[in-house]
Design brief:
Family (chain A): Belongs to the ABC transporter superfamily. Ycf16 family.
Pfam families (chain A): ABC_tran
Structural class of chain A: alpha/beta
Bound molecules: adenosine-5'-triphosphate, magnesium ion
CATH topology of the domain at 2-91 and 167-250 in chain A: Rossmann fold
Radius of gyration of chain B: 22 Å
Largest sheet of chain B: 11 strands, mixed
Low-confidence stretches of chain A: none
Number of strands of chain B: 24
Shape of chain A: globular
Mean pLDDT of chain B: 78
Structural class of chain B: alpha/beta
Shape of chain B: globular
Number of helices of chain A: 9
Order of helices and strands of chain A: EEEHEEHEHHHEHEHEEHH
Helix content of chain A: 25-40%
Radius of gyration of chain A: 18 Å
Largest sheet of chain A: 6 strands, mixed
Largest interface: A-B, 33 and 24 residues
CATH class of the domain at 2-91 and 167-250 in chain A: Alpha Beta
CATH architecture of the domain at 2-91 and 167-250 in chain A: 3-Layer(aba) Sandwich
Helix content of chain B: 10-25%
Strand content of chain B: 25-35%
Low-confidence stretches of chain B: 1-46, 158-171
Oligomer: heterodimer
Strand order of the largest sheet of chain A: 6-7-8-3-9-10
InterPro entries (chain A): AAA+_ATPase, ABC_transporter-like_ATP-bd, ABC_transporter-like_CS, FeS-cluster_ATPase_SufC, P-loop_NTPase
Mean pLDDT of chain A: 94
Domain ABC transporter (chain A): 2-248
Number of strands of chain A: 10
Distance between the termini of chain B: 51 Å
Protein name (chain A): Fe-S cluster assembly ATP-binding protein
């Protein structure tokens, strides 16, 4: 589903190279975890996959279902089924969460040539998803992410993901900021979305999340490169030993 | 009087351009920003009566004659003209434009005869949908679309004269359309008459209700008020007149639609609204003008009088042609709007959505004369391209326990300049005067400017004035976030901007809130990327 080939990227306006040849393939139905020390380029990779213009791809390619997405803008990529749950979700003052969700969903449907959802159908859908994630209906009336607690923001991201039904879900440190119960609720939500056609790229620092969302593959990103790939046991090994040994091996 | 025959290239689709009351058309206009595309289904060449260019006594006499005015009105105009000759165009606003040659403008233009489509079947369905949205019945639509005149019989006449059921009024709008210098149609006349509400072109009111006009005209904005108001007093051609009698709640939204059509023609409308004791009226004006390379002058005066316990809500959706992206053409909008809360417990609220005009000079104000009276000003001012806006309000607290509230949202994009200029003052006797002002600016891009110029003045120690101001930018992060969710860039800007202006949009009559939101989005098209 996703093929990242020798991806090199730098900060567009000042030239610092952040990704230095990332290779990664994710199949439909797969859950891939990316781990790696702070500053290794995990969030940057997620932004570049989503089409953020602050970064310039200097080499390599990103293929989504066999086609390069480099020429697509973020909205087009979203409509094609790519979703990014942000490490730091943005606040949109004055725009009710409900309004935002509806605008996003209908924009995607429109881009795909599908009919817009009627308001009652939409409401039904949101309410069901919100209930599963234990999000109070009142929160949906508030401006998106404004005054939401850290954990509420993360939950709202997963609500959006559930609603938009993307094909490729990238989750950047969704676990950070969640309390123990919320982590369980969010993980259940994600697991419910797991399917043959859907792939996940889960960025995290902690095994805790991977206890709930069990990955098929684990990749270690270090200084802009994948230096090691393994199965779920690799995450356990990192939890026990830290990154030092793997970094040494790769050097 | 020089007779103008159909001018090649000047196609005036009478039925369409004269009569649209609402905002949909203005939206379409902005969308079809190319002149060549600005062609509706019906193009009827019409003969125009156009007075020669220039402002002088003869022109004023001619206007007065054309309007069949009584002598007192002509005298009033001439007095204003004498005064105007001694005045100079104000230069204190943050506006930059070449000097206007006031002798190079036509001060009167009117269609010689109105010939429109034969039936509603011939009218653009898009326009009919807008009428429908406004709840205007077919009979009234015919008048607006130019199919028939108000006093001609309608094919929808059922000859029963049963008044509509109580409570069925909501969502309906009576519309007056002003086309260049004349009012072409007023709908719902009979029904308003039953309630005792007078809603007619001011030119008619001068003839039919001289006692009311004489009593109130110029009583809020005096003849000598300012350069543009004085000029308007001399040459105003039409506009709306509203009188709501004691204790009457006006049974429907009133609306006037203004349009400048004729080339090199100024529009100088005059609106006078009087809410007698304990009455209520909500009024909405909309405006558009075709795209022209040359600048056109619009200098209107609006006077509101609220007597004891009365309330007036005045909303404007202004979308005059703003000029092209290089600043060529566009309307110069110099407007004086003032409301007088004359009686105790009276209330006036101004809501404006300003997206058009090359130059906007406009400060809808409230004189809080009656004790416990209240004034409100809610404004959204959007500038893009080379537009320049200097707008705001004045709240003059004269009576005891008067209160006022100002919410101003300025959005600047492109190379535009957007200034909020506001004055809040409490006079000696205005004990316990209260004002709250919130003034927010949103910048899109790097080339625009936003400025806030508040004047606060208090001569009473018990007055309490609060002022809050913020300036923010739409961040790249926010845009990326919205786009990641599938919202295209321009829609994302519109969404964020609509969030920013929400407090003000909520003040608009419901029918127009959605249209205003769309209009704001469209005005900002091309402001990013
Ligand atoms: N726009 C930018 N300008 C300059 N430096 C940047 C920019 N974006 C990212 N970087 C740098 O690139 C490196 C990778 O950052 P990134 O946020 O991708 O790390 P990360 O792996 O997500 O870290 P963490 O685990 O702390 O979230 C960091 O050193 C960061 O400072
Ligand atoms: Mg990160």
């Amino acid at each position: 589903m996703l093929e990242i080939k020798n991806l090199h990227a730098r900060v567009a306006d000042e030239g610092t190279e952040i990704l230095r040849g990332v290779n990664l393939t994710i199949e439909a139905g797969e859950v891939a975890a990316i781990m790696g020390p702070n500053g290794s380029g995990k969030s940057t990779l997620s932004y570049i996959l989503a089409g953020r213009e602050d970064y310039e791809v200097t080499e390599g390619d990103i293929l989504y279902n066999g086609e390069s997405v480099l020429e697509m803008d973020p909205a087009e990529r979203a409509a094609a089924g790519l979703f990014l749950a942000f490490q730091y979700p943005l606040e949109i003052p004055g725009v009710a969460t409900m309004t935002f969700l509806k605008t996003a969903l209908n924009a995607q449907r429109k881009a795909r040539g599908e009919a817009e959802l009627t308001t009652p159908d939409f409401m039904r859908k949101v309410k069901a998803s919100a209930e599963e994630l234990k999000i109070a209906p009142d929160m949906l009336k508030r401006p998106l992410n404004v005054g939401f607690s850290g954990g509420e923001k993360k939950r709202a991201e997963i609500l959006q993901m559930a609603l938009l039904e993307p094909k490729l879900c990238i989750m950047d440190e969704t676990d950070s900021g969640l309390d123990i119960d919320a982590l369980k609720i969010v993980s259940d939500g994600v697991n419910a979305l797991r399917s043959e056609e859907r792939a996940f790229l889960v960025i995290t620092h902690y095994q805790r999340l991977l206890d709930y969302i069990v990955p098929d593959t684990v990749h270690v990103l270090y200084k802009g490169r994948i230096i090691k790939t393994g199965d779920k046991n690799l995450a356990l090994q990192l939890e026990n030993e830290g990154y030092a040994q793997i970094v040494d091996e790769a050097a | 009087m020089r007779k103008r025959h159909p001018v090649p290239g000047l196609l005036i689709p009478v039925s369409m351009e004269t009569d649209m009351p609402a905002v949909q058309e203005t939206i379409d206009r902005v969308r079809k920003i190319d002149v060549d595309q600005y062609k509706y289904g019906f193009e009827t060449l019409i003969e125009m009566d156009v007075a020669p260019k220039g402002l002088n006594e003869d022109i004023i006499r001619l206007i007065s004659t054309k309007k069949n005015e009584p002598q007192w009105m002509l005298d009033w105009r001439l007095k204003a003209f004498e005064r105007w000759k001694t005045m100079e165009s104000p230069d204190w606003a943050r506006l930059d434009y070449p000097p206007i040659d006031f002798q190079d403008i036509h001060y009167y233009a009117a269609p010689k005869s109105m010939s429109g489509p034969a039936s509603l079947d011939e009218v653009d369905p898009e326009i009919l949908r807008t009428y429908e949205k406004l709840g205007i019945p077919l009979k009234e639509q015919e008048i607006l679309a130019g199919v028939r005149k108000a006093d001609e019989p309608s094919e929808f006449d059922d000859n029963s004269d049963t008044p509509p059921a109580e409570g069925s009024y909501s969502g309906r709008v009576a519309v007056d359309a002003v086309f260049d210098s004349v009012s072409v149609a007023t709908t719902f006349k009979k029904e308003l008459q039953k309630a005792g509400v007078i809603f007619m072109p001011i030119s008619e009111a001068i003839r039919e209700h001289p006692e009311l006009v004489q009593k109130y005209l110029g009583s809020v904005v005096p003849i000598s008020d300012n350069f543009f108001a004085t000029m308007n007093s001399a040459v105003f051609t039409d506009g709306s007149f509203v009188y709501v009698p004691k204790g009457v709640r006006c049974p429907m939204e009133l609306s006037t639609y203004f349009r400048i059509n004729e080339r090199n023609t100024g529009q100088f409308e005059r609106t006078l609204i009087i809410a007698d004791e304990g009455s209520y009226v909500s009024y909405l004006e909309g405006c558009t003008a075709p795209q022209r390379d040359e600048n056109q002058l619009h200098a209107a005066v609006v006077e509101l009088v609220a007597l004891g316990d009365a309330e007036i809500k005045y909303s404007t959706v202004q979308n005059w042609y703003p000029g092209d992206k290089d600043g060529k053409g566009g309307i110069y909008n110099f407007v004086t709007k003032r409301g007088d809360c004359r009686g105790a417990n009276s209330r006036i609220s101004w809501t404006q959505v300003e997206t058009g005009s090359a130059i906007t000079w406009k400060y809808p104000s409230c004189i809080l004369r009656g004790d416990n009276s209240r004034g409100e000003f809610y404004s959204i001012a959007v500038s893009n391209g080379r537009q320049q806006i200097d707008s705001g309000t004045k709240m003059i607290h004269l009576g005891k326990n008067t209160s006022s509230r100002i919410i101003s949202k300025g959005i600047s994009a492109g190379n535009s300049s957007n200034t909020y200029r506001g004055q809040v003052s409490a006079h000696r006797k205005a004990s316990n005067a209260r004002n709250f002002t919130q003034c927010d600016s949103l910048l899109i891009g790097e080339e625009c400017g936003a400025h806030t110029v508040p004047y606060i003045e208090s001569k009473n120690a018990t007055a309490q004035f609060e002022h809050e101001a913020t300036t923010s930018k739409i961040s790249e992060d926010q845009l990326f976030y919205c786009m990641q969710r599938g919202i295209p860039e321009e829609e994302a800007v519109a969404l964020i901007v609509n969030g920013f202006v929400k407090d003000v949009i909520q003040q608009l009559p419901m029918e127009f809130a959605v249209e205003a939101q769309k209009l704001i989005g469209i005005s900002l098209e091309g402001s990013v990327g």
